[in-house]
Amino acid sequence: MKKILTLVAAVAMSFSLFGLDVFNYVQINGNVKNYTQIDYDIGSKFGNLTRTPVLKTVTSLDNAGRAVEITELSARDAVLNKTSNKYDVYGNVTEQTSYDADSKLLWRSVYTYKNGQKADVSEYDKNGLLRSRTIYGYTDGKLSEETGYDGDGALLWKIIYKYTPAGKYSDVFEYSADGSLDLQETYSYADDGKLESLVTFDTYTQQKTRKVFRYASNGTLSEITTYDADKQVKNRVIIKYDAGGNVSKVSEYNIAQKFGTTVNELIAMSEFTYQ
Q: What's the mean pLDDT in 52-57?
């Protein structure tokens, strides 16, 4: 099953231990040539929190601010894999190629476009065999559906997108190959157009959650709070910025009842630096 990528971003920019790609929600400011993200494993020793770096991701940008190379390294700076992106004259990504630490090909994705819009993405394995294909459909110039197939052409999943009159996502439905609904996301926005909340219903777990997006006085996203179906806070993501207005730290907390009180338990952290 292919889970929905919230506010589908352009070519992969950043990954984290807790699944949030912060650059789906905020932009990079200034003349940044590359940025580094360090993900930490959070633990506890004798009652004190510890953090251990487990993954470093270095993203290199071109003059147009597009990701041209993403390198994942271990905590000891050993290269784990490297992905390169190619673009056409219109700024559309045309190819992604990933290699392992020994520069051996892992996979390659080829993008095609029709009338300036992404038509399909074909992913090939290290031997050049087609592994999957995604086909995109449009209505009135907006992405309306996304359909995934395996290398033999068998249907795997389908995503259908609905929009507000302002052209923003209103609902996103993800279906399995048999046509049953897997996941639904419903978006709502504030008067200024900023994303205000995101309600997700997962048919597998029958869980319904609501994410509320909060912003600082300068308009930057500062917190994402997740509520369960009973309107109880279950999770908080706190976003901090540096002097240049770029994200410097993302911290995730689980909210739980422990030892007779409510605790904010830090479970993941990522730090960012820019050059």
A: 96
